[in-house]
Write a structure and sequence with these properties.
Low-confidence stretches: none
Helix content: 55-70%
Distance between the termini: 19 Å
Radius of gyration: 16 Å
Strand content: under 5%
Structural class: mainly alpha
């Protein structure tokens, strides 16, 4: 099986089916870790400085859209094709 690096970064199910050897070959995701600790989540929420008319769900949605845009830009620039 040919290792699909981009898919391994994005698809948890695909990644969970990789062997230990394949996981060892997988380079670090250039976008870094997506997991935040409870303290980091609280700090991010506190740093927001109020809702400014936006609900919490709207803030999270805007953040995720921005993050996804960055990941796709890195992906396209790294291999010249869509992810």
């Amino acid at each position: 099986m040919k290792l699909d690096i981009i898919r391994a970064w994005k698809d948890e199910l695909y990644r969970s089916n990789l062997t230990a050897e394949e996981l060892a070959q997988l380079p670090e995701n250039p976008a870094g870790s997506f997991e935040l600790s409870e303290e980091e989540l609280e700090a991010a929420h506190g740093a927001r400085g109020g809702s400014h008319g936006r609900g919490d769900n709207q803030f999270v949605t805007a953040f995720l859209i921005c993050l996804n845009t960055i990941i796709l830009a890195v992906c396209v620039n790294s291999n010249g094709s869509d992810c």
